[in-house]
Amino acid sequence: MLLLAVDTATPRVSVAIGRGGEVLGDISLDGGRRHAEQLAPAVQYLCAELDVDLSHLAAIAVGLGPGLFTGLRVGVTTARVMAQSLRIPMIGVPSLDLIAYPLRHASRLVVPVVDARRGEVFFACYRPVPGGLQRVTGYEVRAPRALAGELAALGEDSLLAGDGALRYREELGGLDRVELAGPGASLPSAAALVELATARYEREEFSAPDEVHPLYLRRSDAEIEWERKGR
Questions:
Q1: 14: which of 23, 76, 146, 190 fits an S-S bond (Cβ 3.0–4.6 Å)?
Q2: pTM above 0.85?
Q3: What distance separates the 2 farthest-apart alpha carbons in the chain?
Q4: Contact call for residues 53 and 47 (beta carbons, < 8 A)
């Protein structure tokens, strides 16, 4: 089963192609907020390098966020248009899951933290279980100090990953029993998306393209500004 995986929830555009859960190739581009300019060429380049024809794809997987509004719209919309054109299903996976999954062998609580801008972070908590991770909280948005307070109240050994954990290391890294993962674990993994989406496809946990939507936890800056000007 050949699968295309795309994540654009952060400033990085990540694309991977996998077969049977194994990554055949991947590409990541960190170009700020140039998602619309970079995504389609990245897919074309990877397909050409791997000699893969899009018509051979069985499904398209996409990171749902939470993350950057513009990036998410570009990634999800592009994936939906491709899936509709090819008449294949989609698998949507929250991008926080994609940061957490590579850390599934940690013997502590795993907390991916994504920079949400406006002095806030997106996060969720995951507990290692046989074969992977189990999410034990909802997908949340908080100020870093509020997250620090929640972690302190839990009092558990915790491993924090993601660009939000790195940006707010002063608020989060100084807590007892909390460790920060390095830059290598700071962004969603397209390889993790291939593995997770393949498993879901095999369980027939896929969706029609028009059923796949970004995971937004708050309103966009544009919506807030529109409301402000309308008052």
A1: 190
A2: yes
A3: 55
A4: yes
